[in-house]
Amino acid sequence: MNSVQSLTFLWVPWSIVASLTVIGVTAVLCFVAWRRSGYRRDFGLLELLRFVLVCFVAVLFNQPEWVEEYRPIEKPTVAVLWDASTSMDTRDVLGNSGGSTAVTSRREAIAKLTESTFWQSLNERMNIVIQSFSAVDPDSKATAHQGTNLHEPLAEAPRQFKNLRAVVLASDGDWNEGEPPVQAASALRLKGIPVMAVPVGSSSRLPDVELLSLDSPTFGIAGKSVRIPFTIDSTLPREYLTTVTLKASNGDEVTKEIRIAPMGRTSEWVMWKPKAIGDYTLKMSIPRHGDELLEDNNALSAPIAIREEKLRVLVVESVPRWEYRYLRNALSRDPGVDVSCLLYHPGLSKPGGGNKDYIKQFPKGLEELSKYDVVFLGDVGVEEGQLTLEDCRLLKGLVEHQASGLVFMPGWQGRELSLLDSPLNDLCPVVMDPSQPGGWGSRTASHFELTELGRRSLLTKLADTQEDNIEVWEGLPGFQWYAPVTRAKAGSDVLCVHKDVSNEFGRIPLLATRTFGAGKVLFMGTDGAWRWRKGVEDKYHYRFWGQVVRWMAYQRNMAKGETMRLYYSPEQPQVRQTVALNANVMERSGEPLHKGDVTARIVAPSGKAETVRFQSSGDEWGAFAGRFTAEEPGRHDVTLSCKQTGAQLEASFFVQGVAVERIGRAARPDVMEEIARVTRGQVISLDRLEQVLKTLEGLPDPPPSVRRVQLWCHPIVASVLIFLLGVFWVGRKYVGLI
Prior knowledge:
This protein is an alpha+beta fold. Helix 2 runs antiparallel to helix 14 (715-735) and helix 4 (151-160) runs parallel beside helix 5.
């Protein structure tokens, strides 16, 4: 840099006249005083010092400043910053070529700015530096969590580039990481650095149909149908009919005709029945619509494990009513269910039953009870010869800490009302009327009516389509007794209500579910489900209870070994969503581990590993809990281990790839306009890119850097003045004037 130094004064006419007058008068008085002394040398030096002091003060009165100007000798720099994030691959830039409209990607639309040949006309006067930001590492699989940060490149530009004169920013404005870019724009304005913003992309989404999610369950059972939900987002202005295709890696193919809603989302599902066990990959695709301009987001894939099933179910009942008999038959004939029955019949000398399905007593201790995935409680209660308070406490812990399911099936004897005074009261999804223990009966049959939630639930799905399912429920044989229910508890999901009976709280809830701790609870308020076999045999009755058992035991059986079990929620997490991890760990003897060091090593698709340490959440039940936040899409391998037992469990979960940075989102030109406005720059459209060169050519040279030292108030100057006054005072004493 070149520096120019100068001394300046605040010259004001009256201050100049006053200063000269004071200096003149002082000179005359000093000469007169010296003459009176007989022209003595010491008097002459003293008067000369007086005159110097007055002149010094007169100069300071005009505010002298020492000014240094630093002028850069190198050329100013222009930083061309272009967005290289994933959203720039969105194809929504329209351009006319030969009378036909072509659609290009945002990255292709700004490619001209990234070429050095475009800036050749400015090379003689400026240094042009072209640099990308928010680029995705091609060697990394972890691309979904890499977003766009507009603040960082703008904030770093003045420090990174010397003598920065201006910034050219080409982006779609879709920032999703870092501080707001307007903060960096404010800092650039203070430095006098304008930003030439080049927005790219459409501010409204182009006609598109996107497959948003494919929510495949973690595992399925061989020979059992698996429900695969999915969601489609459409920006087309009209509704249309299409066919989605689900292909499995073993060659199975399922198609379903659906109606896609306009300008919104459509949630649907398909059913797939795997025939053999193994690990599969499911791929769903939707055909391209004629008006659709983006077709690279019409397919998604997800893994699923198909395995054999053996669920342990315990059914506890008093009197062997028809509901109990047909339920036991349905479960015992299901090849995937191992059922145990305990009958507290008043006429039996000992609890139990007559065949191999029966057990002689309620499971003793945690070791025996924890083997069951689902427990059905019929018309039984806390009384002599039946359940005890300790049994109820163990059942509550089984649901809360080990993710088992519990089904309440009250009967006309009203024994289940005694459970309201036990620990199981917290689990029941409904409020019962203790004044009517026997419930309500009638000679004429009553019917269920599905709620809005019940129409969408997997538990109440007795037909393949929603319309057929509603028709099936309306045609089911009715029931002639229902439990004394007044209302559903807060947090419960009501699937079915009484079609005709209501009270001050609304329709009487007859089928309700709720989540308690890690497990699920279901309440069936009638004992007439066995009548559903009328005319169709086992079709609806077996299907309903089979769905109930598998739904309640699903989470508990996500991943299990001999002494360890792992389950997590949500089942299909999104990127950056926290996953709640729960584990049950047993001693080698089968007893729950009370205290231990339980860890999970989670390996992401990119190879990045993270260790999660679990905290005990129920010592008595061997329950441990931890949390993990997924940063990458794809399969995450989990190794659960316990230091005390030496056991390990291998598992995995899949993170949905709907990421921070996505193709197909609308651009945000308003962000770019705000950056340009704050920095006093310009917004330049894609069809006027040459305007960027003209604007930069018209920029004036950067002003020099000026450093000012105010001498009139500088501490050193004040010290010199005080020193001279001191010398003058000493001099007066020396010559005898004081």
